[in-house]
């Protein structure tokens, strides 16, 4: 498996290009691969993405079993479980790249944008999602961005920086060059990913 953030990104970018063009290889999805992973795992990246059913990480990057460590919450909001999972992936599994994966037309971000506009909070624990996304809505508004998709891109970038600012462990890993954090925004219509904010030593050229 790749030892650098740049090499990990290149593999994922190539897989996404195959997905977009309809030339997927579906690698590492057979019985032999399954058997080889019973003792250990060595993923090339951890993907922290939205829970949306249309955002299946292994599919859109054309990878298979054992290739990516996936953490998902609605609107890719951060909580203690997310931070613990990411710290485990970096400090224990030695994964060189964290991807923060947002997508257009995100329902959780839409709820936060609507809540900001109306001044009304949603009920139940959906409120918790909205509260965690609202700082990104405010950051987008400060830049004159009011639409949902523009806010999604800003929220993805904000999340990249927030991970490193919140977790001392992740910050140390980035500073030591052991990992990098990269934001991507996925298009539901055409399957492409757009590169956003990056923290750490990584070349995002394809």
TrEMBL record:
Its EC number is 4.2.1.1. The keyword Zinc applies. The keyword Phosphoprotein does not apply. This is carbonic anhydrase. Catalyzes the reversible hydration of carbon dioxide to form bicarbonate. PROSITE patterns: PROK_CO2_ANHYDRASE_1 (PS00704). It catalyses: hydrogencarbonate + H(+) = CO2 + H2O. InterPro entries: Carbonic_anhydrase, Carbonic_anhydrase_CS, Carbonic_anhydrase_sf. Keywords: Lyase, Zinc. Belongs to the beta-class carbonic anhydrase family. It comes from Citricoccus muralis. Pfam families: Pro_CA.
